[in-house]
Amino acid sequence: MQFSKQSGHFASALAEPKFALFAAGQFISQFGDYLAQIALIAAIGQFTSRAPLAYSQITVAIALPALLFGPLIGVVVDRRSKRAGLMVADGVRAVIVFLIPLLMKAAYPLLHAEVTLVVLFPLVFVNYIFILYASSARVSFVPSLVPKEKLFAANAVMDFINKFAGALGFAGGGLLVVGHFWRHLRIAPWEAGFYLDSLSFAASVCTVALLRVGEPPPVRRGDGEGALGALWRRRWAEIKADIRELLEHYRANHKVRFATYSLVLVSIFAGTLYPLIIVIAQKSLYLRAAVQPLLHDTSKVGFLGALLGVGMMGGSLFSGFILHRLPRRAVIVGGLLGLSAMVVLFARSSHYWHLLLVTLGGGLFLSPVMVAQNTLLHEAVPQSLWGRAFSWRDIVLDAGFMLSALLFGFIAQIVLPRFGTVNHERVTLFWAGALLAGLTVVIGLAARTRHGASRPAASREDGR
Questions:
Q1: Residue 219 maps to a domain
Q2: Could you tell me if 123 and 174 lie in one domain?
Q3: CA torsion angle for 146, 151, 152, 156 (degrees, to 10)?
């Protein structure tokens, strides 16, 4: 089947050779990332008996970079070549991830359990700083690889390969990381995930290096002459001016505000995962009867995550083939309402096969929302602000995830037991789904009212 060069079809984006090469390299890199996540869980269990505390420390190391450095990273992305920045970020990550098992093994005889905090925490923290940079640069680089009319399809492809890499990394990759055959190479199974992740970053650097893309020149400002302190003061003043420019665009552009509000709602869903959804799945008698032998097996830790990833792969395909014809706001509102329904159904489900269907449905609804959010930001924000816009996206998602997870966990474990309720996690999850649906209706109606008021002065594309 032939696709028109003017088509916004999913496959039309892959018909662009440069984008196809870039997508292949990013798939390898992200597959390695999921391998490393499984290896990280195994490594913490290997080196410390205080796993719950260690996991909480690593969660902080993962989330803090976005909250501390997100705005600055966005400014740097906008000031530099996206292609060169991706190569540097993945090259540095390859070195950091390669060093993790080496330094942990070297430090363990001296530090014992404290190796997790003293060695792993700073390495993971620095690694996630470069992950943030790579994420913002990657999304900002995509429009340089495809024509404008194929941008939605390209975002759908990138979302699809991320979910495909996640499904393989969590399910099949977990088996690879804990496979005993690694011992024949004198490598502990948990080390293999880090080494493979390092190789995947090297592969990403090679594919990006092969691309020859005419990027628009980044914004550069003269520093003048003067002492080092004066130079840094001027740099900091420019960074603050860049952040103010993004905030002014946020206040002036209703589509950027809508995208931000919808990101908050996605973060609310994410905040239900650890304190509620996973706990409900583990407590379910029907689920436990089916997978009890797998619950303490590292290779199966990501089973539900893999299933969600399969659903999101389907959602990405549906987005690229069908939903690119619809207004972005309609895709986001419809997807969030469907996701809300899945959250409520999960709270009311007990049979194993019910949870399977609901998890798949959640992925099918969530993926189009994320594709449409990225595309809406691409369309609504000037190219000179893309790096800042997508680092702002990561800040909103990470901050919302942390706050909502703390809130729902507090309600489920502290508040509801005082009222004598049972099934605290299910009750909390049910009302979290209801809250998500209610807020979706609110932002949908507000966006419709705002769009209706501005439509006479807007073009058809602006209405998307």
A1: no
A2: yes
A3: 40
CA–CA distance from 401 to each of 60, 98, 271, 394 (Å)?
Answer: 12, 29, 5, 10
Q: Which two tokens stand for residue 172?
A: 């099949």
335 shares its domain with 416: yes
- Give the tens place of pLDDT for each residue, 91-146: 999 999 999 888 888 877 776 656 666 778 888 889 989 988 888 888 888 888 88
Domain span at 282 = 246-464
271/324 same-domain check: yes
- Residue 127's H or E segment, with its range, is helix 121-141
In 3D, which of 69, 301, 331 has the Cα closest to residue 169?
301
With CA atoms as reference, report the closest residue to 213 among 43, 86, 311, 90: 86
Query: What's the pLDDT tens digit per position in 62-93?
Result: 777 877 887 678 777 887 888 888 999 999 99
Confirm if 320 and 10 have CB atoms less than 8 A apart.
yes
Return the percentage of the chain with pLDDT > 90, whole number: 17
User: Do residues 27 and 164 touch, judged by C-beta distance below 8 A?
Assistant: yes
Mean pLDDT on 188-208: 87
CATH code at 458? Answer: 1.20.1250.20
Contacts of 39 (CB under 8 A, 6+ apart): 177, 190, 191, 192, 193, 194, 197
Same domain, 405 and 458: yes
- pTM across the whole model: 0.65
Residue 344 banded pLDDT, cuts 50, 70, 90 = very high
104 and 196 share one domain:
yes
